[in-house]
Amino acid sequence: MITPKRYELEDAQWDRIKGYFPPYRTGRPSSLDNRTALNAILWLMRSGAPWRDLPERYGSWKTVYSRFRAWVSSGLFEQVFLELIDDPDMENLSLDSTIVRAHQKATGAKKNAECMVENQAIGLSRGGRTTKIHALVDGLGNPLGFRLTGGQVHDSQVASELLEGFDISQSNIIADKAYGTAKLRQYIEDKAGVYTIPPKENTKDKWTCDYHVYCERHLIENFFNQLKNFRRIATRYDKLAHVYLATVYIASICILLK
Q: Which residues form the Insertion element IS402-like domain (predicted)?
């Protein structure tokens, strides 16, 4: 039995996911096993330290970084995340987003770099250069999906994209006033779902809202609170959007393993 240090996975947690990590096949056998590499990545994400400040007990930071980028490129972290979503509670689904400040080191990606969203999901708003994490959680507060945009993108523009791929015919969608657009409400109704979204004060044709059920929206706020315990998520340092999204998946994996 290995006694985990701070930020590291426990034996039971690692046992649940170790089968998804591929064996090292390139060249000589690596002295860096997958568990140590993942623990090194978690240490960086929780501490917010630069890669070069990785403690010596994890080995060379270059080796860990190379392993991390290989896993990101293969989509490993998204795969593990999706595998851990086991029988979600679809009765109440909560939508929301959170703003993340982009560090100056996160800007300046190469023009020919892989880009999954416009401008690497870095936007310019009153808060400076920011990224917005859009999330969907189930009735227990467990994450189901994410999208990244620039910080200036309105929440409702990404909502239907987040809901796609899920059967919401028996679901109640809980969200704040920003999601009360006619387009999104019609989308939910077309999918045979219902919504608990309060209307804005200046809305002419107001609809009813069960504010007792609306209080369940705290689940997604709690999730964002847990997510931002990872300092490399609370402040974005990664230039590429798909690399930053991978860190969101890693943090969500840790949350689901608790």
A: 9-81
d(CA 22, CA 39): 16
Identify the segments of the chain with pLDDT beneath 70: 1-4, 24-30, 111-112
Asked whether the beta carbons of 192 and 210 are under 8 A apart, the reply is no
What would the pLDDT profile of 206-243 be if each residue is shown by its tens digit? 999 999 999 999 999 999 999 999 999 999 999 999 99
* CATH architecture, domain defined by 88-241: 2-Layer Sandwich (3.30)
By CB atoms closer than 10 A (0-12, 13-18, 19+), residue 41 is buried
Tokens of 199: 């209307």
What pLDDT is attached to residue 3?
A: 58
Determine how β-strand 92-102 pairs with β-strand 235-236: parallel
Pair of tokens at residue 96: 């929301």
